[in-house]
Design a protein that fits this description.
Shape: globular
Strand content: 15-25%
Number of helices: 9
Largest sheet: 5 strands, mixed
Distance between the termini: 49 Å
Structural class: alpha/beta
Length: 312
């Protein structure tokens, strides 16, 4: 069966693409290690890959690419969010799928490669199911004994009354008047509040704040480099924060802003978005940055040193 192969370097990717005939369908999966949907995408693709028997030359090849570790490859396919799937044959992009919808991913692959030999046997991972909680006073999972016998309040599964002095707590639920059993705030909660406060101050450190990989003079990813160029071309003065230098902020800001990727651009303390969103804003409103311009066109750059956010 075929497998999902991990691409580690640009040379590795180039070798894979050039060594196979133009008839091969490449399924390129862009992911990041921290995004939960990417784990689901990986499981889906491994299942799909196993349904296609290996051939020489291969009919289909599945490649897994870390979008952050290999930014040049990501940029060449215009990847702005993960998970992101690209189907390519003979150097032509046939279809793309954004997100980890199993049905969409499978349909796209089968549309261009046909169904795998044992896809029907393997199938895709099913959606998780939950059992609804019973309404108060009604039957539910809490009313069933491990041995399958139904119990009623005050009696065990054999219909016997509990021994004297014994309380049946099967229906117990704490009330607001019950004493607290834990401290009002744990140390973890205190640390989270401190981090949230720090992030809140960082996003307002300058009228325009760029959270990026690297610094404006040495960007560490293609998306950050492009966003720096956009700000410079429009004469925007901005502050920046190198998220690679502070893992706590890097992970915390993604949750705090509910925005899982970098770079992130903030204006007036409000999230604008990533590179793709900034481009869309400028297409719809060329004067989007007008109130933040402090230099001539093509002369934008970093704000005064006091506006530059420094890692803790």
């Amino acid at each position: 069966m075929s497998e999902l192969q991990s691409i580690k370097t640009q040379a590795d990717f180039d070798s894979q693409i050039s060594s196979l005939p133009p008839t091969t369908l490449f399924v390129l999966s862009f992911h990041t290690p921290w995004a939960a949907p990417c784990a689901q995408q990986t499981l889906i693709l491994r299942t799909l890959a196993s349904a296609y028997p290996p051939q020489t030359p291969p009919l289909i090849t599945f490649l897994s690419i870390d979008a952050e570790a290999l930014p040049d490859i990501s940029e060449s396919f215009e990847v702005t969010a993960v998970p992101y799937l690209v189907l390519q044959r003979a150097g032509q992009i046939l279809e793309t799928v954004s997100g980890s919808d199993a049905a969409k991913v499978r349909a796209a692959v089968e549309r261009h490669a046909g169904k795998g030999g044992n896809a029907g046997k393997l199938g895709l991972p099913p959606a998780l199911e939950t059992t609804p909680r019973a309404e108060e006073g009604g039957g539910g999972m809490g009313d069933v004994e491990p041995n399958g016998g139904a119990a009623t309040n005050g009696e065990n599964s054999n219909g016997e009354k509990p021994a004297a002095g014994t309380n049946n707590l099967s229906k117990y639920a704490p009330s607001a008047s019950d004493p607290a059993t834990a401290p009002e705030m744990s140390s973890t909660q205190g640390e989270q509040e401190e981090l949230d406060k720090r992030i809140s101050e960082l996003v307002k450190a300058a009228p325009v704040m760029l959270f990026m990989k690297g610094t404006p003079s040495t960007p560490q990813c293609g998306f950050s480099r492009q966003l720096v160029s956009i700000l410079r071309e429009r004469g925007v003065r901005y502050g920046f924060f190198n998220i690679l230098a502070d893992e706590e902020i890097r992970q915390g800001l993604k949750k705090w802003a509910d925005w899982p990727t970098y770079p992130q651009l903030w204006c007036g303390g409000e999230l604008v978005g990533g590179l793709d969103i900034v481009k869309e804003e400028l297409e719809s409103d060329p004067d989007f940055f007008s109130e933040y311009v402090a230099a001539g066109k093509g002369k934008g750059g970093m704000a005064a040193p006091e506006a530059q956010a420094q890692p803790a």
